[in-house]
Amino acid sequence: MGRGLPHGRLQGLTARLPIRDPAAFVLAETRARPVPLAPEIVIRVADEAVPLWSKTEEELAEVGLPPPFWAFAWAGGQALARHLLDHPEICRGRRALDMGSGSGIVAIAAMKAGAASVLAADLDRFALAAIVINAAANGVPVEATGEDLIGGPRPDVDLVTVGDLFYERDLAARLLAWLDGFLADGVPVLVGDPGRSYLPKDRLEKLADYAVPVTRELEDAEIKNSAVWRLMPAARGT
Predict the structure, then answer these.
(1) What is 1-58 written as a DSSP string?
(2) Top-confidence residue, 173 or 218
(3) Is 22 helix (H, G, I), strand (E, B) or coil?
(4) What domains can you pick out in the chain, each with its CATH number?
(5) 136, 147, 158, 209: which could form a disulfide with 94 (CB 3.0–4.6 Å)?
(6) Angle, nearest 10°, between helix axes 125-137 and 22-29?
(7) Are the C-beta atoms of residues 45 and 103 closer than 8 Å to each other?
(8) What is the reported pLDDT for 10?
């Protein structure tokens, strides 16, 4: 299960104004807990996936929505956050862009590791609220945007992070093509991923492995082996 679910349906979360303010919903339906692999970070998470999932559908008067990705600490994001915290030289003084930020775990880790600034991008308005709430709880400033950046102008940054975002074919293809623009400009792209279906493994250099505690409600195991990778430029002629 997990993040193999259709991302297109996630955009339904941004298509309607919720009855309650997104920040109020996040605060009411989640509680603060340390991230298992990065306990230096505390985020708002759901106790159970299904009840929050149902409440999100009720809030938006829409059935068949995917899980609220922002309310869980996904394996790829945890691995990438841990790596940034353990290697602050990656972020120190850099302007970072965190794609598919969800709860903001990676964005928060980048700021804690000394980034000059972080722009956290996610299409889900509940995620945007969660990012702001979680960043404030961790004492770091993070700017959040709900704009669909993929395919558009690239923000002026020095580092791009991608946590657990290669789970759907079309999204992965669009994202990879867009990320190539950063590589062409000499901007490093780091990926945290447990081996989702559309991870471009032929384009990746492994930097580290992690055994990540996750929830069985959304994953197929309680420990998900994940890695942090550096995205490499496409070989000429491909």
Answers:
(1) -GGGS-HHHHGGGGSS--SS-HHHHHHHH-EEEEETTEEEEEEEE-S-HHHHHHHHHH
(2) 173
(3) helix
(4) 2-231 (3.40.50.150)
(5) 158
(6) 60
(7) yes
(8) 31
